[in-house]
Specification:
Elements lengths: L2 H4 L2 E5 L10 H9 L4 E3 L9 H16 L3 E7 L1 H7 L7 E8 L7 H6 L3 H13 L12 E7 L8 H4 L23 H4 L6 E5 L10 H13 L3
Parallel strand pairs: 1-2, 1-3, 3-4, 4-5, 5-6
């Protein structure tokens, strides 16, 4: 096997209604750290999650061949990764940033709203029904954001304020304004961390980037 086919490739998977460019700053950081990355915009608004994952698996298999694969995902990209149990893909480790691993309370509350269904498509509705999602295909870690309000995250201005616990006098449930911390957790995590970062740009946080690099290399922070 040649050195080129042995060299790891890091797959960057963006979230719902985003494009691969949203992962570009993280990609640049990983390049400086010595990693080779791959990213492509998948049709997140047009297809159900499982169908989108099928397209992504084909693209990765063509790009990577037999190379060992790592992944860093954002939001729904983590759920796409959970569906990538494909024998052509040789997964090693995965870092999931702000993933709605237990579904999304916001999606559940909005799934019958016509505007929500039009904009977010079938994948948006899928996020309300996580019951049949498979476990990730490799060792994985989760990083959750805790900055509940951010000007760069419109969801946090409105529906993101619904993250409450207990009665009306309780403090808001920890969240990044889009996904609650409790929604990110999944049995079998090799590592978990909370960071003071908003949902929309958690991948650009310097602490997050350092943790991502450490886990990809060592399986720990």
């Amino acid at each position: 096997m040649s050195e080129a086919t042995q060299r790891p490739l890091v797959i960057l998977l963006h979230g719902l209604a985003r494009r691969h460019g949203s992962m570009s700053k993280l990609g640049a950081f990983l390049h400086r750290a010595g990693w080779e990355t791959w990213a492509q915009t998948y049709p997140s608004r047009q297809l159900p999650i499982a169908d989108a994952a099928h397209h992504v698996a084909d693209w990765i298999a063509e790009a990577a061949g037999d190379r060992p694969l790592y992944a860093v995902t954002h939001s729904m990209g983590g759920i796409i990764a959970r569906h990538l149990h494909d024998p052509r893909l040789h997964w090693q480790r995965i870092v999931m940033l702000a993933p709605p691993n237990n579904g999304s309370a916001i999606a559940a509350g909005m799934q019958h709203n016509p505007l929500f269904r039009w904009f977010y498509g079938p994948a948006g509705s899928d996020l309300a029904n996580p019951g049949a999602w498979p476990a990730p295909p490799a060792q994985f870690a989760v990083i959750a954001g805790t900055r509940q309000f951010a000007l760069t995250n419109p969801t946090s201005w409105t529906v993101g304020r619904r993250f409450v616990s207990g009665n009306r006098t309780s403090s808001p449930e920890p969240s990044d304004g889009t996904v609650a911390v409790s929604e990110t957790k999944l049995p079998g995590m090799a590592a978990f961390a909370e960071v003071d970062a908003p949902h929309t740009w958690i991948m650009n946080d310097a602490k997050v980037q350092t943790m991502v690099d450490a886990f990809l290399r060592n399986g720990t922070w």
